[in-house]
Amino acid sequence: MEKTKNIFLAALVMTLALATTPCHAKEFGSSSAAQIVDSMKFGWNLGNTLDAFANGNEKNGWAGKKDLGIETETAWFQPMTSQAMIHGIKEKGFSSIRIPISWHDHIDQQYKVDPKWMSRVKTIVDWAIAEDLYVIINIHHDNVAPSACKPNGHKGYSPAESCMEESKRYLSNLWRQIAATFNNDYDEHLVFETINEPRLPGDKHEWNWEKNCATCKEAAKCINELNQLCLDTIRESGGNNAKRLVMVPPYVASPGAAIGGAFAMPKDPSKEGRLALSVHMYTPYNFAMESPGSKTFTSAHKGDLDYWLGQLNTQFVKKGIPVVIGEMGATNKKNDKQRLAWFTYYLGKVKKYKMAALLWDNGAWQVPSSGSYNELFGYYNRKDLSWYFTDPDLVEAGINARN
Hints:
By secondary structure, the protein is of the alpha/beta class. It has helices at about 1-20, 35-40, 85-90, 115-130, 165-180, 215-235, 255-260, 285-290, 300-315, 335-350, 395-400, and strands at about 40-45, 95-100, 135-140, 190-195, 245-250, 275-280, 325-330, 355-360, 380, 385. It has an eight-stranded parallel beta barrel, surrounded by four helices. A two-stranded antiparallel sheet has the order 9-10. Helix 5 runs parallel beside helix 6 (about 215-235).
């Protein structure tokens, strides 16, 4: 009788254990944060797609009645993402993909995400995971000016003291739902990024960090709190999210803000400590982004890259915090040979410091009749599944330099 009782109790314990163990949980590897980032190498951004929105802007808020549902994906003139498109990223030789996602067009007054939108995000993530790519998902264009961050708006967050109560509600509710959707079915190949380029839209320092600027300091303090909140929310979801790599940005994802003293990495409740710094580097600005700026990649430009990448290496990588450059690229100034030199030099330095870098691609590549070089960061023809700038092949140069 005692033997039968023991067998019954053992079976009961096993049943309870199985009931609390997620079905189909994917085994999470033992790679450290630094090893994961090093494996991400050179990646590509699905820009101007799931991050697009139909109403308003970040300065004034998301006023408007236009609701495109999942068709928001095409609001900024990019085609609907296809499985073949994602396969083309892997086939080209990229190791990772960043999928920027804006959520404010797809939540209700109770902060609940539209199930159709979440399902669409999941479908694209699953395509990328099936290609054995490292995949980054985030909260992208949900940052509004303090004046547009209203308690009854449920439409965004702002790194300002006056907005912190609503910002925390917004971000914690979103990350709770994202974490619930993306947990045990995903191993270390899925990476979370708390927020994108957190800043003060409309402020004179919106895009420029200054260490002696009072509003910048306040914003940096708020960003530290919001990063901590997002990380805690992710970790509290348990399962694989308790140990998933999480990327966190400083003010406007600026390297200067990261090393300026006001930024602090959050404290990770996970013993694995899988965190990475997230920055954006269209560097040097007058070559990579400014219009007209400079068309020639000079030794001075190399010096700029040496300085910023060296500082990130010294202040973060060497201290055990790997760095992911979530966005980079050089706008088309009809200077392909110079851009080839830039890609080769930039990604070679990234490899040296075992960082990861992801190419920003917004689909725009042709210089207009006005002659403006502004925001021409298109590299992949997503309709024809072909690549621009193949003579010389700028993307291949970057892949080869980082690999």
